[in-house]
Amino acid sequence: MIGSQDSVPLRLRGLGMRYGNGAWVLRGVDTTVPAGTTLAVLGPSGCGKSTLLRLVAGLETPGEGEVLLGDRPLSTPGSVVPPEHRGMGMVFQDYALWPHLRVRDIIGYGLRHGVHRTTAGERASRVAELVEFLRLGGLEERRPVELSGGQRQRVAIARALATRPRLLLFDEPLSNLDSRLRAEMREELALLLRRLGTTAVYVTHDVSEALALADRVLVLHGGRTVQDAPPEEVFASPVGGWVANLAGFSSRLVPEGVTVEGERATVTVAGVSFEGRHCGEDAGGATGPEVYLHPDAVRIDDGAGAVPAVVASSVFEGRHHRVRVRVGSAGTVLLHSSVPHRPGDRVGLRVEADGAVVFGGATDARPLGSAHAAQDDDRGTEEQHRDAVHR
Ligand code: ADP
User: Which atom of ligand 1 lies closest to the CA of 203?
Assistant: First the structure.
């Protein structure tokens, strides 16, 4: 048995935090992580993800609300069970491996010291079990400096599992790996979390990690929950433009008009209409209608009825060309193309219905050039939006 004997739910009730007497940096976070499942906490830098994790870990005291593991209160404003008594394991971004210790001793560290101390025999057999589980065979006598980034992170995971924690916390564990290794480790971690069946909280700003690993995604913005839903729902029905942006719908257009019929919206851009999914009003407070497009759902097609656009840039990225096109004053659109395009070329765009999410705009049609028209600068809307998210 690699994981803990019994899985327990983690509950956060009205959790809030402020540093010193400063402003609240986290407020009213309510969620339950069912036993044996993984919650990803997703959001841009500064939204409160680390603060949330530190509260769950017992490294901070909540200003309000509580953290419960099973029925046991771990943190309230009046009392905090210290980290070493919470039955949890943590995996950090920077691995936090002791440089002078060997892999075998790093993994067994928690079983040698403190509340989880065991006999040497028990320790050796647990370390051997974890070495096998995390494919670290043959590396037991190495020091961290003699390991690759992926191997270091597997050692950090083995160490976190050694004491059979009832709760696993991950703090952006893959962000120091290169993109190829990150994709591999993402798959490996997803499998591992399923096999372990341990309740886990996984903090990340990387939407592909959240979507791949989690049973549920809690999206934070400015210290508040803006969405708490299964990954498929975050992708299919983001609650606002900046969540859509996080979920990969990276281009924002300001349409001339939007007509809504149930979950379908017909959007008019540069005089041409196409369909998208209507996701209600933008929870982030955008006042006019907006449409967000996924780069994989837009293609260049010069046939009749395509949205007219002008190529702004085209960059070869190996698997495809990353092409940015300007659509009049509605904004710019990013797409992937198998062939290069020349800046200045006039092209047509075709948008797949599930690749467009639409906010706002009941039945009115607004004239172009109104207060909501996109800024006409040289940057793509992706960059503009990223700036807005990080402000
Ligand atoms: P994230 O992990 O999403 O980047 P954090 O939880 O680190 O966000 O930060 C949330 C907010 O709390 C930010 O505005 C940050 O500046 C503030 N903050 C974080 N740590 C401290 C601290 N030790 N003292 C004061 N403010 C802090």
Answer: 2
Distance 25 CA to ligand 1 centre (A): 7
pLDDT tens for each residue of 37-92: 999 999 888 999 999 999 999 999 999 999 999 999 999 999 999 998 998 999 98
Nearest-atom number in ligand 1 for the CA of 223 is 10
Binding-site residues, ligand 1, Cβ < 6 A: 19, 22, 25, 43, 45-51
CATH homologous superfamily of 241-390 equals: Nucleic acid-binding proteins (2.40.50.140)
Instruction: Take residue 138 and report the two structure tokens written for it.
Output: 């043959």
* 318-354 pLDDT, tens digit each: 889 999 999 999 999 999 999 999 999 999 999 998 8
Please give the distance, rounded to the nearest whole angstrom, from the Cα atom of residue 391 to the centre of ligand 1: 14
Domain ranges across the chain: 10-236, 241-390
The token pair at 28 is 């009213």
What SS3 class is residue 341? coil
Residue 332 makes CB contacts below 8 A (sequence gap 6+) with 251, 312, 324, 325, 326, 374, 380, 381
Query: Which CATH architecture describes the domain 10-236?
Result: 3-Layer(aba) Sandwich (3.40)
Q: Specify the ligand 1 atom closest to the Cα of 45.
A: 4
Taking the CB of residue 180, how many other CB atoms lie within 10 A of it?
9
Distance from C-alpha of 186 to C-alpha of 176, rounded to nearest angstrom: 13
Mutate to test the pocket of ligand 1, among 21, 27, 50 (most ligand atoms within 8 A of CB): 50
207: tokens are 């939407």
How many other CB atoms are there within 10 angstroms of residue 6's CB atom? 11
Q: Cα angle at 217 between 212 and 219, to 5 degrees?
A: 125
Q: Put residue 190 in one of left, alpha, beta given phi > 0 → left and psi -120 to 50 → alpha.
A: alpha
Q: What separation in Å is there between the alpha carbon of 377 and the centre of ligand 1? A: 32
Give the dihedral of Cα atoms 336, 246, 217, 179; nearest 10 deg.
60
Spacing, Cα 67 to ligand 1 middle (Å): 19
| Cβ contacts of 108 within 8 Å, gap of 6 or more | 123, 124, 126, 127, 162
Distance of alpha carbon 334 from alpha carbon 357, whole angstroms: 15
Q: How far does the centroid of ligand 1 lie from the alpha carbon of residue 112, in Å?
A: 34
